[in-house]
Structure formats: C-alpha cells, structure tokens
C-alpha cells in the first residue's frame, strides 16, 4: 500500500481549497454538517476504486469495504488505512457520538458506529458530499501538489 503525506495543508492551501467548494460542501466539510439521507451521489455507487477526501484528496475508504447499511448514507466497515481517519468525540444534538474527520485536513466526514458487519463490527457512515471517487487505475486528485498516485486495485 502506498504511503501518503499526512502533513496538514498550509493556511494558503486551505483557503484556496475552501474557495473551490460549493456551499453544501463547505457546510458539511468545514462546519460539521450532515447531508440529507438517501440523496448522496455515492450511496449507490458500485464501481471498484477508492473514496477520497473531497477537500484534500487523501484516500479514505476502499470500495471493497463498502456495504449497504440501509441508513441512507454510504457506509464502510474499515478505512483505507487507520491513520487516514481520526475519531473525535461529538457531543452535539444531545447525544454522544464518534465523529470521523480526515486525518490530513480535519474535514468532517461523518460518524462511526459499533453496529457494522464483520470483520470490524464498525459502520463508518459518511456524507457523499465529503467524498470524491477514484476508479481503479485512475490517478488520485492532487489538490495539494504532492505527486501522490493511486492506480491499481482499490
């Protein structure tokens, strides 16, 4: 598995990337919002590849870890690499949950719950708007200019 640079974007890179987001992408990624269920572009995506952070391009989840949770959001049982996502305590909305953010840019992705399938028993429940998709054999987006590539099987 390739190694990726997890150094956060500079303030200038962050400002440039944020300027290219739609209002909905900004609301979810930067303000910890949630998109409506059953409407995300990746909910029914069946292509082989990797799901990447919409903000910084870091690979987050493989299509081989995706499953239909019936919740209305794309769900995965394991990340691309454990170090690519970070768990944060989320006390909002009168409940305690585990928020997941991109480990490189800290963009909000969704939440993780302990009700997923084997082998992990976890359900990473993501907002489609927080993701990009790279099909097997396609190059990663490289918004930070780090020369990272993916290709090969997702």
From TrEMBL:
Catalytic residues (UniProt): 125 (nucleophile)
Superkingdom field: Bacteria
Reaction catalysed by this enzyme: L-methionyl-[protein] + [thioredoxin]-disulfide + H2O = L-methionyl-(R)-S-oxide-[protein] + [thioredoxin]-dithiol
Domain MsrB, residue spans: 14-136
Co-factor(s): Zn(2+)
Keyword rRNA-binding (UniProt): no
Listed transmembrane segments: none
Residues the entry annotates as binding Zn(2+): 53, 56, 102, 105
Cofactor note: Binds 1 zinc ion per subunit. The zinc ion is important for the structural integrity of the protein.
Assigned keywords, A-Z: Metal-binding, Oxidoreductase, Zinc
Keyword Oxidoreductase part of the UniProt annotation: yes
InterPro entries named among the record's database cross-references: Met_Sox_Rdtase_MsrB (IPR028427), Met_Sox_Rdtase_MsrB_dom (IPR002579), Mss4-like_sf (IPR011057)
Sample GO molecular function, one term: peptide-methionine (R)-S-oxide reductase activity
Gene3D superfamilies, per database record: Peptide methionine sulfoxide reductase
EC assignment: 1.8.4.12
Membership in a protein family: Belongs to the MsrB Met sulfoxide reductase family.
Matching NCBIfam families: peptide-methionine (R)-S-oxide reductase MsrB
This protein's name: Peptide methionine sulfoxide reductase MsrB
Organism expressing this protein natively: Lysobacter brunescens
Gene symbol of the encoding locus: msrB
């Amino acid at each position: 598995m390739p190694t990726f640079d997890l150094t956060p974007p500079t303030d200038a890179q962050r400002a440039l990337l944020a300027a290219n987001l739609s209002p909905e992408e900004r609301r979810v990624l930067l303000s910890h919002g949630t998109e409506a269920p059953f409407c995300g572009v990746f909910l029914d995506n069946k292509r082989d590849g990797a799901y990447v952070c919409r903000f910084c391009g870091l690979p987050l989840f493989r299509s081989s870890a995706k499953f239909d949770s019936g919740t209305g959001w794309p769900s995965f049982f394991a990340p691309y690499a454990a170090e690519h996502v970070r768990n944060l305590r989320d006390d909002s909305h009168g409940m305690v949950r585990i928020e997941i953010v991109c480990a490189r840019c800290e963009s909000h992705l969704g939440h993780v719950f302990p009700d997923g399938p084997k082998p992990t028993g976890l359900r990473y429940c993501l907002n489609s708007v927080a993701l990009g998709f790279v099909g097997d054999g396609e190059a990663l987006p490289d918004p930070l200019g780090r020369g990272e590539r993916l290709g090969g099987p997702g």
